[in-house]
Amino acid sequence: MATLAILGVVFACIVILLYLHCKHKFNYWKSRGVPHKKPAFLFGNILNAALSPYPIGLYISKLCGKFGNSPYFGFYSFTRPFLILKDPDIIKHILVKDFAAFPNRLEDAPWEPILNNTLFAMKSPKWKELRTQLTPVFSSAKIRLMMSLIIECGKNMEEYLTMKVGENLEVKEICSKFMADVISSCAFGINGNSFQHENSDLRKHGEMVLPNTIICYLKMAAYFFTPAAVRLLKFSLFNMESVQFFKYTYRTVIKQRTQDEVGRKDLLDILSKNPFFCHESNDDLLIANPIVFFIAGFETTGTAISLALHELGVNPNIQSKLRAEIASVIGRHGGLTFEAVNEMKYLHMVISETLRKYPVTPIIPREATEDYEIRKTGLIIEKGTQIIISHDALHKNPKYFPNPEVFDPERFSESNVHSINSYTYLPFGKGPRNCIGERFALLTAKVGIIYALTKFMVHTNSNTTEPMEFSRSLFLTAKHGVNLTFTRI
After folding, report:
1. CA 177 from centre of chain
2. CB-based contacts of 125: which residues, under 8 Å, 6+ apart?
């Protein structure tokens, strides 16, 4: 009995100490006059986020709506404070004007060499050198050289749709096949053959390497919100079987090209001939960046194409107008060319509106590397504080985009686009660490839509969900799929 009593006292003391610790920590935003969601004992606000039916990006977006005109609000992941920004002027300073104080996204993860050697996760100042080396890879001139490879993949998708005319199709699956082939061709220099072979190894491992599952979603969320737990557990984010597959594939192609003295003017060619990446000590850089490039393009661009097609199915007048533009421009150019795609202004408006309504990445994270004063309000952001910007909250704010749930490409017409504050529309981020693959993503998305519309009408069917519902997953994922039917024109 005495032992039990002692254990009871010890347990009570631990609980009291934890309570006092949490009470002190949870006074952080209140003491600074920052509005915040009331934290729960020990967990702060993160448990509510974890139990929410919404993906983290949508959850934070809905929180933003509850804080009215406040330029920001506080959030706690366990006892760690986060500042969630809503004001576009403050966002502009964080991402661009005062970028030097907020250059990093994630904490170091040396046990995860794939993530740690990517442009996405690398910290300052190393990321800047890598960005300098990768920037020419995604220049307009280099992407123009990949156009024929992308067109070949578009033709394969068109042939596949021809065989599926009249059927109820899950379009995200088709767009993923298209993007798997595009990335395989442009990044790895090989034919993915996703439309010819249902069990294509590249596509299979593309899905497996960073699986869009609830477990992987929670792991990635931990990297953003509970880095201390990640450091303690050192769990792997990537599927190592698939990582090894990509490493072997990549090295095999490089070796074969070196022996045959053959080039394809693709991403692999450009990287493998750059002395910075070919140095033995940079082997992880050479492998990691194309793998993450594959994941990012495969998931995000495939999702964007499928959601654009969904909106075109729901809005047949917009679809007809876009198809007319595509036919007219291709006719003037005598075929589909890089210049022709860039001339399709209405297509660009449709893509822009799709990315406004459906931002495919959840949040923009930044970490303060020094104490920083928000001049607009006088708030001091302390060194180490994590900053979060929600694309969805900005894109769905009626103050910036009236009737935000309405799909309206005219928002981005030449006469209207200049009235949009560029820091309320952030599908690719802004500033020195914006998405380096923006040009490539836009081009491939446009080519995918062109090949889906040139010979086909897109219709909703009995399986179509409108409005769309999204599941808790790493990337924006339609809960019931993107279901449409194609008919021949």
Report:
1. 18
2. none
Please give the model's pTM, rounded to 2 decimal places.
0.92
Letter for the amino acid at 165?
V
- Closest by Cα among 170, 114, 156, 158 to 292: 114
Q: Are 426 and 417 in contact (CB under 8 A)?
A: no
Cα distances (angstroms) measured from residue 285 to each of 133, 184, 209, 280, 336: 11, 18, 17, 10, 35
Question: What is the distance between the alpha carbons of residues 187 and 222, in angstroms, rounded to a whole number?
Answer: 29
Which of 15-29, 231-245, 354-368 shows the lowest per-residue confidence on average (mean pLDDT)? 15-29
What is the per-residue pLDDT for 22?
A: 63
Long-range contacts of 429-434 (CB under 8 A, 24+ apart): 429/95, 429/364, 430/91, 430/92, 430/95, 430/96, 431/95, 431/96, 431/99, 432/96, 432/99, 432/103, 432/128, 432/131, 433/95, 433/99, 433/103, 433/105, 433/127, 433/131
The 10s digit of each residue's pLDDT in 15-45 is 555 655 566 678 899 999 999 988 887 788 8
Closest CA relative to residue 190, chosen from 300, 293, 271, 268: 268
Structure tokens at 117: 């050697």
Q: What is the pLDDT of residues 75-112, one digit of tens each?
A: 998 889 999 999 999 999 999 999 999 999 877 777 77
Per the model's pLDDT, the better-predicted residue between 238 and 281 turns out to be 238
Distance, in Å, from the CA atom of 267 to the CA atom of 277, rounded to the nearest integer, reads 12
Mean pLDDT, the chain, whole residue set = 87
Q: What is the CA radius of gyration of the chain?
A: 24
Q: Read off the amino acid at residue 376.
A: K
Q: How many CB atoms lie within 10 A of CB 471?
A: 15
Name beta bridge partners: 83.
Answer: 74, 387
d(C-alpha 307, C-alpha 254), whole Å: 35
Contact 114, 291 (CB under 8 A): yes
